[in-house]
Amino acid sequence: MTHEEHHAAKTLGIGKAIAVLTSGGDAQGMNAAVRAVVRVGIFTGARVFFVHEGGTVIGSARCKDFREREGRLRAAHNLVKLGITNLCVIGGDGSLTGADTFRSEWSDLLSDLQKAGKITAEEATKSNYLNIVGLVGSIDNDFCGTDMTIGTDSALHRIIEIVDAITTTAQSHQRTFVLEVMGRHCGYLALVTSLSCGADWVFIPECPPDDDWEDHLCRRLSETRTRGSRLNIIIVAEGAIDRNGKPITSESIKDLVVKRLGYDTRVTVLGHVQRGGTPSAFDRILGSRMGVEAVMALLEATPDTPACVVSLSGNQAVRLPLMECVQVTKDVTKAMAERKFDEAMKLRGRSFMNNWEVYKLLAHIRPPVSKSGSHTVAVMNVGAPAAGMNAAVRSTVRIGLIQGNRVLVVHDGFEGLAKGQIEEAGWSYVGGWTGQGGSKLGTKRTLPRKSFEQISANITKFNIQGLIIVGGFEAYTGGLELMEGRKQYDELCIPFVVIPATVSNNVPGSDFSVGADTALNTICMTCDRIKQSAAGTKRRVFIIETMGGYCGYLATMAGLAAGADAAYIFEEPFTIRDLQVNVEHLVQKMKTTVKRGLVLRNEKCNENYSTDFIFNLYSEEGKGIFDSRKNVLGHMQQGGSPTPFDRNFATKMGAKAMNWMSGKIKESYRNGRIFANTPDSGCVLGMRKRALVFQPVTELKEQTDFEHRIPKEQWWLKLRPILKILAKYEIDLDTSEHAHLEHISRKRSGEAPA
Questions:
Q1: pLDDT tens-digit profile of 524-534?
Q2: Is 140 in the active site?
Q3: What confidence tens digit (pLDDT) does each residue in 216-239 have?
Q4: Which residues participate in the annotated binding site?
Q5: Do 189 and 159 meet the contact criterion of CB atoms below 8 Å apart?
């Protein structure tokens, strides 16, 4: 891209005006979206206006005035007088529907205003069109066309915090807990919560239970207790119904359990606590990314461009026609009202259906007693610990057992495989693992090459026919060594798959790794507290060192989520001049009302510009203007309970890996034994843009920088300019790659099966 094209981004909005409003129910992450719209809008040269909720320009979907034509006339009058022809609406489907209605009437409204003498012909000509872009803010995730709405992930955080706390007391007293979560018309929160905590049962409006569900539920709870569990968790969406449309309430479930089983049962209705608290890292980043894309969509729009919604598909921002999304969302509600529940599930999309299918497998099916004719699959952790590893192992073990396989667990990685630290796992072996951090199996960075002989002997001894490796860069390089070892040892010719799990998010072949989201949230929480500590002292700059090796993912994304002034990473080389610019930027910032600064540094971003060096530089150059403090976060980034995202992601990755493994073992069965020596028999399972895909490790070699243990191309680097714009730096912005308008049917057919 030429310098002129870069510079054009900074003049894209000159002469244009954008208004941004939040409408409907509140959702965490809306503020991040508003901040992004305002700062990027100003960066492009546009004038940006706030519209307060319930105000006189458009108000909220709950504003009665706006439902009447007279109210919409007043709104149009205000927009015209301010010269606003671009509107960014952040809200639910009601808000976005109202905005689209407003747009469709725009010409008639202007005509009426001109006839009434309230606007001039010149004003009507200047404002002869209204462009609208919607961002969906809803904790229910009930809007079709996007994988996640702003606020959903934060709501899941609140729910899981409570579920984890309740689990502790439930185990102490051998209780059954019935938890009611929000979701009047959509069961997403209830479903993902159930996946994330390993609930015994879930009630969602899209898929009511069978008519004899009371018997099934009681049998399921008693079987769980028989297996040794000391608690039962039942999750209920507030809109749960039976097949006849009759509401299923948390109290009625409690009464059933007490009457039939006599269990000590308690009900917890979470209510509006799900809307509260600080937004998660995911929602902050989502709001920021969607806000930037919304501004670009508005400024690139023509009078003929249809109103669109900026949504998330995999890790990609996409633009979809607003009314297509609204119509599909209404179709879901209609299908449920008409009791066409299969149709409602399909309309929710493949991602929702996949969540449901995985949950049903893990929670509702009794594992087969007989393992005759089964395969033997081993699962292990390799590399540094990462939150979510245990959830992946649990899913792998239980899906394997459901398929009738014999599942072995290997302790301490490849070292344990060489020493024979292997045991068979049953259903209860992994009970309660979903919410536990670290690695229950134990994990080491040891690679297999030096122990091929012992590993081969144990593969034969334990009749291992497939290997699932959950881990980071060492798991990937260990996979490559296994492929090379096949030339010498036939025993190594068994299928294997790597599930990326590392806080560094540096495994080639996957945009996301299990554990990275938990680490991001740990960093964000720490940054929030550190910034808060400066609220009283003022004029203070914090330099925070993050993990990641040479990979700058954590520093960049945490910087974007926490509102950092700078984030130093290895992938984007910097000089002493860059450091000088950053110091000067903070000097100017201290003259504003925000008298604090936040700087993130990836641990291996530069050999010479260490954390101590940068701290000393900022301390010296800031003398008399601001104080500097440093904080090395260290291994706290690897600890803690996994976030809902990591639990859910790990669970689905484990299930998909085991399904692939079963098929690959059958495919590799030759002459009475397993013999797999093709490239596609050793893969990394990764999220690539919009889909989960299996990629041969040998094909990923060309995409790997082995010296620095990172992929040669990393998608998140394209988000770096957003961080700088939001920190109010004057930079060049590349607008050559952005989302194009798609249609919801096309998006749905290509969405990630996870």
A1: 999 999 888 87
A2: yes
A3: 999 999 988 888 888 899 999 999
A4: 25, 62-63, 92-95, 138-140, 175, 182-184, 238, 266, 272-275, 445, 502-506, 540, 547-549, 603, 629, 635-638, 709
A5: yes
